[in-house]
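Hi, here's the filled form for the chain we discussed.

Project: internal
Contact: R.S.
Residues: 74
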Amino acid sequence: MIYEERLTLTYSKSAEEYLKYCQSDRLEQLSAVGGQPLCLLSGLIGDPANQYLQITAFEDVRAWEEAQAFIGPK
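And the returned structure, exactly as it came back:
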């Protein structure tokens, strides 16, 4: 197992929209390409409310590399 940590900083006004996107589409996309979304965190102490930390598990490096074509930054 390997774990990916992905940090996303949104515009303040679009933070809610990004969260809804993650809940409705992003987590399903990760699962479809072999990822196991573990958590999506926001509002950590000292971090801005529009900063999100996502942790995703992958079976191995090969699975992670193959998934990047489908889940990379847009």
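Let me know if anything looks off before we file it.
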